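Possible regression after last week's pipeline update?

I re-ran a chain I had predicted before the update to compare outputs. Posting the input and the new output here so someone can diff against the archived version. Not blocking, just want to make sure nothing changed silently.
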Amino acid sequence: MPAPPPPRGRGAAGNPPNRFDRLHVELDVPEQDEDAPRQVKTEFLRDATRSALSRNGSPDIPFDYSLNPYRGCEHGCSYCYARPTHEYLGFSPGLDFETKIVVKHDAPRLLSAAFQKPSWTPQVVSVSGATDPYQPVERRLRLTRACLEVFLRHRNPVSIITKNALVTRDLDLLRELAALDLVHVRLSITSLRDDVIGAMEPRTSRPAARLRAVEALAAAGVPVAVHAAPLVPGLTDEELPAIYQAAASAGAHSAGFMVLRLPGAVGQLFPAWLRRHFPDRYDKVMGRLTEVRGGRLDEGRFHERFRLHGPWAEALRQVARGAARRHGLDRPLPPLATHHFRRLAKGQMDLF
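New output (post-update):
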């Protein structure tokens, strides 16, 4: 019997076992029409963490601290490398990841407390080291916005990564941060095709909306880059020059790309998604993913995780370099400032 399709608006069709669980139970359910739409509501759970910042221990990542107001992500991207992190919470990296969102309600207060410590050295904090800070619930909870207010109040630099046009809601704060050289924004644009995005990233902003966000950010003086990330070989790689051209037309400062990685359970979830939505591309995509990782589906070792191997990878690098140079996107984002940083007086802290 074929597996049922994902619930409406979801990327995963079910919940694969948590790798830390010694026992996995599958319930017998009544047989149903495999084409019938299913719905699964999102649950929002409180995170009682005592720290807002996460320390990065990987030499492959160009920042030491990140901030994720939400654990899990309702965007439902089928390929998301953060899915395995939900297993540490006792959940599945499948549907649980996109329907059980753990919310750090105290993140703004905890972030300010971290900046107040004498031991804090002002440095760039990445907002979204894992999950998207502008996923749908942010429209209501406004935790990312509240954290940006903390960054501005303390004058600590911040780098934002998102694939949601909701980031433009906070243009007032981003404009103030940019005036002090305190912010970068990176928009992820994985494809310009609505059909691909609708299937692969079901609850994200569509490509045209993301490009409008790039345009709005650039017009407001906010340094903005576009990343074709993740690029799926055999499915979206042919769009790389067009993505760069669209980014330049929207006013992006720079552009880059990253080829899809499939860590942990994503190595099961994404191939299942691919076979369901693009069966004619399955062999080509999986073959190239294995090729660029030196014969493996994923490479988890430090200093090797993001390296690409083989002739296709070299051809892709040349295409990317040529397109970036042609469209004026082959320059880094301007450096962020740390000399504005300030700790607050006690009366100012009472605002939190």
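Follow-up from reviewer: compared with the archived run. Residues 27-37 have pLDDT under 50 and may be disordered. Marking as no regression found.
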